[in-house]
Amino acid sequence: MLLEDRDPVRQRGQQANGEVSGTPRLGGTGDPPLRGTSAPDGSRMEAVAEGWELGPAPGDRDVTPGGTPQQAGRHEEALMAELSELVQKVVKSSSWWERHGVDISILACSFLLLPAGFLCLRSTQAIPLLAGVFTLGVVHHTLTVKGSHLASHNALTESKSWGKAWAIFFIELCSAFTAEQATYNHVKIHHGYTNVIGLGDSSTWKLPFLNRYIYMFIAPLAVPIITPLVALDLLRNVEWKAALRTLCCMFLGLYCHYWLLLHVSGFQSPWTALLCMLLTRSLLAHPYIHVNIFQHIGLPMFAADRKPKRIHLMSLGVLNLPRNTLLDWSFGHSLISCHVEHHLFPSLSDNMCLKIKPIVSQYLKQKKLPYNEDTYTSRLRLFLQKYEELMVHAPPITELVGIQ
């Protein structure tokens, strides 16, 4: 059983009555996170093609039960090794199309939809105009969220060189963020220290000075403006060559969007073109923000020196949402219905996370480990009801007394 020092029965990391029990980021699991942690050595850090098993944090010690700490640690390592072996068998038996091709095709289709979206905006009729806004909005989020997320994990290709190139393209050119900082904060910090207080606890997403309705329903509209501003601030932490490259890519991406609205879509006023840019870039900003907080905040949180091993950390601190056609396409399975699988095996593509989902869920349940799932509406209701507790106050640290 998992006990928390303030409420001994709630912090079990499992579903209870439609909501995930437990008490306690704006940047995720998805798109480049807006986190202020600087990457060491700036641009010299490679885009990480991380392994499936991250080493312990400095000072980390196993606190799960099962005899001595060493015995408990060996037991959890054996569980992760066994699950990894099952998953590797599926990966090795999968074709290139399954490992990379499906997701690359989705990104390629999004590029092919761009001309149709810009041309629809030439119309003065409501339906084609709305279709153009919707098309460009979905394409933008597919490239910036799904593309950036896969590129940050080097899940689009097995080549590190091509992986770095795709990270620059999707994160800097399409998303107007800095690749080094996005990769470091998301892969190294968020994934390495998921739900660890002060590191991967998703606190970047919290804006405690906003009330619940402004945060949940109005603030997301500002994401397209906030993202490049945060990126500019983070450029102080990277080498000047990387900063110059990022500035050029950010300017080129934003200017190309603006230029196409003027010269292809036929906007006469710069202000209407800028308004259309804001509208399309914030079309799915609400679910983007919601998904990033729903899947971690409200689940058990841990101290850096007292956290469970990887398999327990990810099963306790990560939640899956149900499949959704629009969000599956735009954000990817690894950010929606396969987030637990993604945190356990982060280098796998969205399609592969979906393929291993039955194996992971069955294994965790067989071993009586948490496998958190909840609906979008249930999580939205929970956050509106407990906004102060989850998003304003500091989350309590979960005390590991035992895990059954």
Kindly describe this structure.
The strands form three sheets. A two-stranded antiparallel sheet has the order 1-6. A two-stranded antiparallel ribbon has the order 2-3. α1 (69-92) crosses α14, α3 runs antiparallel to α4 (160-174) and α8 packs across α9 (270-281). The chain has 16 helices and six strands. The chain has one domain (92-392). It has helices at 69-92, 96-120, 126-152, 160-174, 179-191, 212-218, 223-234, 240-263, 270-281, 285-294, 310-317, 325-330, 339-344, 350-366, 376-385, 387-392, and strands at 3-4, 15-16, 19-20, 319-320, 372-373, 398-399. The longest helix has 27 residues, at 126-152.
Q: Determine Rg (CA atoms, Å).
A: 21 Å
Sheet with most strands: strand arrangement = 1-6
Main β-sheet: number of strands, strand sense, barrel status?
A: 2 strands, antiparallel
**Through-space gap between termini:** 5 Å
- Helix content range of the residues, please? 40-55%
Shape: globular
β content, as a range? under 5%
Query: How many β strands by DSSP?
Result: 6
Low-confidence residue ranges: 1-66
What number is the mean pLDDT?
85
The class by helix and strand makeup works out as mainly alpha
Q: What is the helix/strand order?
A: EEEHHHHHHHHHHHEHHHEHHE
Number of helical stretches of at least 4 residues: 16
Task: Provide the domain count.
Answer: 1
Any chance you could write out the topology, listing elements then pairs?
Blueprint: E1 3-4, E2 15-16, E3 19-20, H1 69-92, H2 96-120, H3 126-152, H4 160-174, H5 179-191, H6 212-218, H7 223-234, H8 240-263, H9 270-281, H10 285-294, H11 310-317, E4 319-320, H12 325-330, H13 339-344, H14 350-366, E5 372-373, H15 376-385, H16 387-392, E6 398-399
Parallel strand pairs: 4-5
Antiparallel strand pairs: 1-6, 2-3
Helix pairs in contact: 1-14, 2-3, 3-4, 3-9, 4-8, 8-9
